[in-house]
Amino acid sequence: MSTKRKIAELQADKTAMPAATESMAIGLQVAGLHLALSGQTILPDISFSLCTHGITTLIGPSGAGKSTLLRCLNQLYDGWQGEMRIAGHDARRWPQGADALRRQIALIAQKPAVFPCSIEQNVVFGLPKRQRKAFSASQIEQVLQQAALWDEVKNRLDAPAQTLSIGQQQRLCIARALALSPALLLLDEPTASLDPHSKQIIETSLLQLAENMPVLCVTHDIEQAQRLGGQVVFICDGRIIEIAAADDFFSHPERLESREFLHWSTCDCA
Q1: Which residues, 6 or more positions from 157, have their beta carbon under 8 angstroms from its beta carbon?
Q2: Can you list the domains of the chain with their CATH numbers?
Q3: pLDDT tens digits, residue range 180-224?
Q4: How many whole angstroms from its chain centre is CA 194?
Q5: What predicted TM-score, i.e. pTM, was given to this entire model?
Q6: How far apart, in whole angstroms, are the C-alpha atoms of residue 58 and residue 243?
Q7: Spatial contact of 169 and 194, defined as CB atoms under 8 Å apart
């Protein structure tokens, strides 16, 4: 089956990518999140939720605070205020501490970061040392399958990860994150530097992953946000302007700022 056909089938299955609603189980709940850096307010008041499965795209102009929000969720910034709950648990009172929480909230950067070791060793790199040896060959295959990389590397798992293409390296980073069994997958423009074919493969993978977990993806590609569907969060000047199902947002956005952004790819929300 072609990648384009698979994307079309996944898009047609609206149950696979729901928007967060009160009637569905919540995987992530953020309320009144505030972040200031060096005395400057970056995120004044962020509130939104993600279901236990489904895809959400985070869109907005450059400098809107999208990447900063992901880093807050991933606990790379620890000075935030407000409330954050993951699968009903308070992020500030995570039983095993902040490091364990970060493993539950996987963050994939725009530029893939592979380590100077084999493909297989990269998959298990994020696991605690005592768990690496216990991570079986079938588990490695499973996460590589989920990242749509297995068929391309199954006969060269011992090869250096740097020999992979940039698109393959990005999928390897996704597999490495999945090896941690995260509760939430965050992606910061994961296809911005990739060719169209690699972009399609990753989009298909994200749609499949979203059937079983919450996926939050920052993108500047409006067409990509339309293809991925699910829920859209439009952010500008550190504030959420509008949250809606993708079909509704792109066909008839409620806010003037949203309409201006979709038409001009810029806005003035300050």
Answers
A1: 118, 119, 120, 140
A2: 3-110+182-264 (3.40.50.300)
A3: 999 999 999 999 989 999 999 999 999 999 999 999 999 999 999
A4: 16
A5: 0.89
A6: 9
A7: no
